[in-house]
Amino acid sequence: MSLHSENGIYAYFDGDDVGANIELCLLEDNVGAASQISSRVSHAVQWLRGCLERDFSGEISFAAGDEVLAFLRKIPSKEQIDLLRSEFEKLSGLTISCGFGASARDAASRLRLAKLRGKDRSEGAPVG
User: Fold this and answer.
1) Which helix (H) or strand (E) holds 70?
2) What is the pLDDT of residue 20?
3) I need a surface site. Which of 2, 29, 67, 124 has the fewest CB within 10 A?
4) Could you tell me the pTM of the whole model?
C-alpha cells in the first residue's frame, strides 16, 4: 500500500552484484578487499540518499546495504537518472539498477525487471 497520495514517484535503487563481489573476496580470503567494497558502497548509498533528498525532494523510506527506496516529489528526467547511476558507479566501483513506479510495489517490480534484463539499467523511468 502506498503511503503517499500526492504527486510523485517511488524510486527503488539496488547495487548490482555487491554481495557476489564481497563473497568472492571472502572466498579468496581477502577480507581487506571485501571491507573496501563495503565502505565504497556505503559511501555511494549515502551520497545517493542525499541527492534524492536534496535534488528531488525525496522522502527516504530506507537506505541500507546497497539499497535505497525513496518517494520523489520532483520527478527526475532520464538524463538525471543516468547521471545518478553513473556517479554511483564512480563512487562505488559497481553499477546500480533502479525501478520507478506509482507505488513501492510497482517500483520493486520494475527493479526486478531491470535486474532480469541485464542489470545496470532503470525500468519504469519517467520520460523527460
Assistant:
1) strand 67-72
2) 98
3) 29
4) 0.92
